[in-house]
Amino acid sequence: MTGTQEQLIAELIGFLRIPSVSTAPEHAGDVRRCAEHVRGMLAAVGLQNATLIEAKGRHPLVYADWLGAGADKPTVLFYGHYDVQPADGEWVTPAFEPAIRNGNIYARGAADDKGQVFLQIKAVERLMRRDGRLPVNVRFLIEGEEEVGGEHIEAFVASGDPRLQADAAIVCDTEMFAPGLPTLCVGLRGIVYGEIHVRSGETDLHSGVYGGAAPNAIMAACEIVVALKDRDGRIRIPGFTDGVIPPSAAERAAWDRLPFNEAEYLEKEVKSRALTGEPGYDVFERTWARPTLEVHGIRGGFTGEGAKTVIPCEAVVKISMRLVAGQTAAVATRQLAEAVQAACPKGVEAEFRAFHAAEPSLVRTDNVFIEKSAEAMREVFGKDTVYIRSGGSIPIVGLFEEHLRIPSVMMGFGLPDDNLHAPNEKFHLANLFHGIDAMARYLELLGND
Ligand code: BES
Ligand code: MN
């Protein structure tokens, strides 16, 4: 490794050490410290107006810009997030003590998304150091609430603030299809996330004395859940999939050319014994272009060590739906709420409460921002850039389109086995270095007109 690379890693470690878990109230101070850290990095590379944008009760947004390229050059808006998912589960080395193993850096947020925010900043730094200026105008908007729905940035993007003026957004928060294969993500699923609250009575009951006569909130919750999706993976919410727009023949054909082996995918990524999902659709379509519904956790009753014979009167199900083109979060939310009511057994009350939502997005590929990004990555990785979709959600992409009318260029440098949201999250160091090269080259190409 070169001295420059070692220096980069040392700096990235400083960023990864901050436990900026946005969903955990006890980490609110760390999230703020992380925002300050990002502002410091942006200012240190020569960007101007580096500031935290605050809103009461929300995690700060970090903004900075450099607009010295001139009005005839495009303005790009870099987007990423400095918040991370919780770090529960079994880690080989602690989540916030970054460690290097086999060419990877392991830490919560390594790929999602601190490593990728870092590479954006370092690409700008490289050009700034070399030329004393940048080939295009740039703005940075780095948020601290992406993993919890992004309310603060949503309000800011809707506000019409002049700092949002840009021709395209560069979003680094997705994955490459395979190691060494340069990838642009051109579609994301939307999401509706919330809880189903179930109540079967006023108090827990002795399961021997009342079992057979009293309703059970957890049994009811399970009944509701199985009514929403059948054993084959078909969603049973009335009308839910009616509007879904299938991928075009050209996009399907491009997916068919991607290197993919289902058995390997099962073994190396899913790490289970069988794939599931809607019959009649292949894995790409099931994960990129079909909606789905998952349960994330069920709370209620007795979950401690040992046994307790109780009929629980309360249960909460954490649940989300992923949405695709042709669906909207508002309609899907209403449909789910109604389906929960319809499936609720007698004597029980159930209610769906939505936390946050994001619309699905599809980006157009016939513009210079996409074309030059594909070209820059082709040059750096030495292979043709592939266009894929992702099943994940990045709420801001739909909002940039809706409020700013700008395309998002999703240049992602994560890998499918980076363990996003799971223990042992990592970022491949070669992707960090190539990512910086590709991003710097992209800015040069954008400035070349
Ligand atoms: N970076 C991910 C989304 C992603 C992952 C896109 C892999 C493409 C490939 C992002 O940080 C994320 O996890 N988003 C959440 C959004 C939600 C909490 C609103 C998601 O998809 O669950
Ligand atoms: Mn992310």
Structural overview:
With 449 residues, the protein is of the alpha+beta class. It folds into 2 domains: 3-188 and 360-448, Aminopeptidase, CATH 3.40.630; 190-244 and 291-358, Alpha-Beta Plaits (2-Layer Sandwich), CATH 3.30.70. Helices cover 35% and strands 22% of the residues. The chain contains 13 helices and 18 strands. Strands 1, 2, 3, 6, 7, 8, 15, 16 and 17 form a 9-stranded mixed β-sheet that branches. It is globular, with a radius of gyration of 23 Å. The mean pLDDT is 97. The structure holds ligand BES and manganese (II) ion.
Write a concise keyword list for the protein shown above.
nine-stranded mixed β-sheet, 449 residues, binds ligand BES, alpha+beta, Alpha-Beta Plaits, 2 domains, Aminopeptidase, binds manganese (II) ion
Compute the CA-based radius of gyration. 23 Å
Reading off the top of the CATH hierarchy, the class of the largest domain is best stated as Alpha Beta
Count of the domains = 2
Helix proportion range: 25-40%
- Write down the overall geometry: globular
Q: Report strand %.
A: 15-25%
Bound molecules: ligand BES, manganese (II) ion
Structural class: alpha+beta
CATH fold-level name of the largest domain:
Aminopeptidase
Name of the CATH architecture of the largest domain: 3-Layer(aba) Sandwich
User: N-to-C terminal Cα separation, in Å?
Assistant: 35 Å
Weakly predicted, low-confidence segments:
none
